[in-house]
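Tip: read the tokens left to right.
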């Protein structure tokens, strides 16, 4: 077999890398649907579109009052409303007002659609009325909790809306200004 020159090796190497990149892109494009057991649930769905500004897909868990709860892969830049649509839309009794449907999705996020009449959908007006539903709590509701003022309450509502809802009260420890003592007050008064 004849010896290859240095320039021939470089050309063959460049062609090989280009083919690998094209192949990887094709494989990624084919795997753009929902993941896991959710693949069979959505295989026939139509009418879903999201304009994406590029980037990596996000994988989200859609749960609660939706027709087909499950784990779904969506294009980067998708919003909570897109995840709900991918899960077959809201089920009867869904409290869509309890979540921010315009919030952008993050990889690994859970979108919890609350059910009307559940503890999550309960909005209490005073501290003595019982637990406050985290999914629908207003700034005024949160201010009734010991250690929560108007600024911190607004930060909590903003964080919840950015995340598209929260599955657990413990997620609030990511909000700046909330320490261990405040977390205990929140756990005592909030329901997920």
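Filled-in amino acids:
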């Amino acid at each position: 077999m004849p010896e290859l020159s240095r320039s021939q090796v470089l050309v063959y190497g460049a062609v090989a890398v280009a083919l690998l990149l094209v192949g990887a892109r094709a494989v990624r494009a084919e795997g753009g649907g929902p993941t896991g057991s959710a693949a069979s649930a959505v295989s026939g769905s139509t009418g879903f579109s999201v304009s994406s500004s590029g980037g990596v897909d996000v994988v989200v868990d859609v749960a609660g009052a939706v027709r087909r709860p499950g784990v779904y892969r969506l294009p980067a830049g998708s919003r909570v409303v897109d995840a709900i649509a991918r899960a077959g839309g809201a089920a009867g009794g869904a409290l869509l007002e309890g979540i921010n449907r315009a919030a952008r999705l993050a990889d690994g996020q859970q979108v919890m659609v609350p059910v009307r009449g559940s503890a999550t959908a309960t909005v209490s007006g005073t501290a003595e009325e019982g637990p406050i539903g985290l999914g629908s709590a207003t700034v005024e509701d949160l201010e009734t909790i010991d250690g929560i003022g108007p600024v911190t309450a607004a930060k909590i509502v903003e964080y919840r809306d950015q995340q598209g809802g929260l599955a657990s009260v413990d997620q609030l420890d990511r909000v700046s200004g909330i320490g261990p003592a405040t977390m205990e007050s929140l756990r005592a008064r909030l329901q997920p």
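The radius of gyration is 23 Å. Residues 32-53, 119-128 have pLDDT under 50 and may be disordered.
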